[in-house]
Amino acid sequence: MADLDTLAAFPATGELGPVLNDWEEAETVLGTTFPPAFKAFLTAFGGAKFDDFLRVYRAGAENEHVDLVTMTLAARKTMEDSRPHIRALLEERAVQPSQLIRWGGTDNADMCFLVPHVDPERWAVLTVIGRGREYDLYEGPVESYLLRVLRGDIVSEVFPEDFPDEDPGYERNPWI
After folding, report:
1. In the structure, what pLDDT confidence band is assigned to residue 4 with cuts at 50, 70 and 90?
2. Mean pLDDT of the region 124-143
3. Cis bond before residue 164 (omega within 30° of 0)
4. What is the pTM of this model?
5. Which residues face 50 on adjacent strands?
6. Interatomic CA distance for residues 94 and 91, integer angstroms
7. Strand pairing report for 135-138 and 124-128
8. Residue 131, pLDDT above cutoff 90
């Protein structure tokens, strides 16, 4: 079973319905072409909240606090102005903070990013603590990173010890 399907099989509450994303607008404004795997992830989980803690954004959300484009533009500025250790990590990958894509965030102000690569199969996940120097870098797609964190296969340097719950799940909110 693919990681996306395994993640979707976790216990879920909330609203059913398609998750609509405005990919054309998001790609134009953010100056990127998203990998198909990321589009599939947001089509399944845009607006969802995992364990009442980690929110996945949606491209084109009316609520600016969960809109992929709005949150990405704000976070790029933050990452450019601060976090020199993250800038150095990105430079090693030939990526600028202005290329990061913020796909989610937590109630603790932690930021979840995609780190682009020329090869769409080699985009990585970067999770940065809201306040401090800790970060996680995962070489692989968002759904694989999130699945491994929720199953406890990866212990995050960023997320608190009580995340995830013993029985992780998510709340669907495709209209947020």
Report:
1. very high
2. 95
3. yes
4. 0.95
5. 54, 170
6. 5
7. antiparallel
8. no
